[in-house]
DNA sequence: CATTTTTTATAATATCTACTTATGAATGGA
DNA sequence: TCCATTCATAAGTAGATATTATAAAAAATG
């Protein structure tokens, strides 16, 4: 069996409505932009399908039967529901509605994304955004499973079916309180880290891993005295004089600086972290497309 | 241009809903009673039509995109409206709903139809009946124009596209009050009508015309002193002693008799009136069909 | 009352749609 | 690595949906 139609053709319903309104097959055809025989055929098809006459044909006159009158409102509801469907789809396309779910590595989510999201909200006030922060691994996973449409994470590798663009170039810096002996320096030698109490993020965090591998390549070893799960905690501890911190540079940028923390580079070490925006090759959701563009503009 | 489709195919919407619910193309196909490629094609067609992805294909996994989630309720409404349409049509067919409009010559409407309509109401309590009374000519007109589906009228002639069955055989009778000299008779000679004050219906009414033509054929002439537009008025006048009435026999049948009116036949005159039930050859409205059967049973 | 005009229905036909089966490709588990 | 499962694609077919052309019937007109 093929070409079968389990329920009435909405085009026929539309024809039905139009003929009922216009009171004439010919005028309905005109109004619907089709030819008159097509209208006749649709009407007949609908009538045989429901097994009842919708119109009374007395010569050229067409009068709704009682059945026709009774079915008119139901037919109207169908057509209206269909129109609302396409309107909803168009509204999504025109960004008058919609949702995006984006994931971002915690550091980005806290220190960088807010300003973009604010801008996006200004451009498309009706679109709902859900921001999920977490580890790059977890977010990458969620992206692959289609539960996120965009993700700002550190590149693990190329992801099949996805594209990426560089979003943010970060580096790790050493932070010290203003009264610290290093406070006036621009940079210090990595070896000096062994002489001070170190405050870093917990071993699981990417921040820590970047640091660890860099120091390892340099043949150095450090003994942190504090592990934190939060850059803000690190900053506080450093300000209190508990030690020297190592954090992403974004957390001491002008607008997020706390107190008079000083930031220094580690001489000769490459501590850069690259954050990429990942997105499916065909992301298909106009709202996600728009957010992507905002993020990359 | 042909085969065009101005708005989405509801079958595709149904597929969309089912895939979203089942979470799998294959299972949706099974549940919809079609093969898997058909489902895939419907989904793709819908997606290209609205220009957005509804599902995220990560390998074999299918996850609703945000767009898909947003459009799900609208799609559901369309399918539901369609189902309600067919249900409404079926309800009409099963006589669980519906309307009939029947016309009947005044005499029939007042004295005969009520008991049939009561019976019909008992059989099909949900069906609304509208009874229109009036002259046979007017009702025939309305029937031809499709504004009535059934009509109990006196036969004018054969109506093209309509059928008829004898519904009621009536005759005109003379009525007199119980104290009248004729009260004990079964019938009287037509000539005697000239000797008494006559009360008849107005010249426009069929009752009058039947009488007139019968008397004319018999070469008689009468001079009514009262014209009424209502058999009840005639009966009252006769009872009060105002004269002798000529009415349809139905109006003095046992259950509609007022007082002790006596009815007499006119000897040698054929004063029968035949009331026919007229209906379109294909009346297409199950409710009308049912009422027709009740009337003829 | 015959003729013309208007309007709907039918016929023949072409294209597009909506299925089918057969097959390929990719994923996930053993 | 192989196998099973699942979705996508290809090719083919019956049916649906439109078209144009034409007939038939009813109203309008002279």
From TrEMBL, chains A, B:
Coiled-coil spans in chain: none
Ranges of residues in domain HTH lysR-type: 8-65
An example Gene Ontology molecular-function term: DNA-binding transcription factor activity
Keywords, comma-separated and alphabetical: DNA-binding, Transcription, Transcription regulation
Gene3D superfamilies attached to this UniProt entry: Periplasmic binding protein-like II, Winged helix-like DNA-binding domain superfamily/Winged helix DNA-binding domain
Protein's UniProt keywords contain Nucleotidyltransferase: no
Pfam families named in the record: HTH_1, LysR_substrate
Entry's family note: Belongs to the LysR transcriptional regulatory family.
Name recorded for this polypeptide: HTH-type transcriptional regulator CysL
């Amino acid at each position: 069996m093929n070409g079968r139609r389990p329920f009435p053709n909405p085009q026929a319903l539309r024809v039905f409505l139009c003929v009922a309104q216009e009171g004439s097959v010919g005028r309905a055809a005109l109004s619907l932009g089709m030819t008159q025989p097509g209208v006749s055929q649709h009407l007949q098809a609908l009538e045989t399908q429901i097994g009842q006459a919708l119109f009374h044909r007395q010569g050229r006159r067409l009068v709704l039967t009682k059945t026709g009158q009774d079915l008119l409102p139901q037919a109207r509801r169908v057509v209206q529901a269909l129109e609302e469907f396409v309107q909803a789809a168009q509204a999504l396309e025109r960004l008058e509605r919609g949702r995006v779910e984006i994931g971002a590595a915690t550091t980005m989510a806290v220190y960088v994304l807010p300003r973009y999201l604010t801008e996006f909200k200004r451009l498309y006030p009706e679109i709902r955004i859900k921001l999920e922060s977490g580890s790059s691994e977890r977010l990458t996973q969620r992206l692959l499973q289609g539960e996120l449409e965009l993700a700002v994470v550190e590149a693990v590798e190329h992801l099949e079916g996805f594209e990426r663009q560089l979003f943010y170039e970060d580096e790790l810096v050493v932070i010290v309180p203003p009264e610290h002996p290093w406070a006036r320096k621009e940079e210090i030698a990595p070896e000096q880290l062994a002489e001070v109490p170190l405050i870093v993020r917990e071993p699981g965090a990417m921040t820590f891993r970047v640091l660890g591998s860099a120091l390892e390549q340099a043949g150095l070893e450090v003994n942190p005295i504090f592990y934190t799960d939060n850059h803000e905690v690190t900053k506080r501890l450093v300000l209190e004089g508990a030690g020297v911190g190592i954090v992403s540079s974004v957390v001491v940028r002008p607008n997020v600086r706390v107190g008079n923390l000083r930031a220094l580079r580690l001489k000769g070490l490459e501590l850069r972290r690259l954050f990429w925006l990942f997105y499916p090759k065909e992301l298909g959701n106009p709202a996600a497309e728009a957010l992507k563009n905002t993020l990359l503009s």
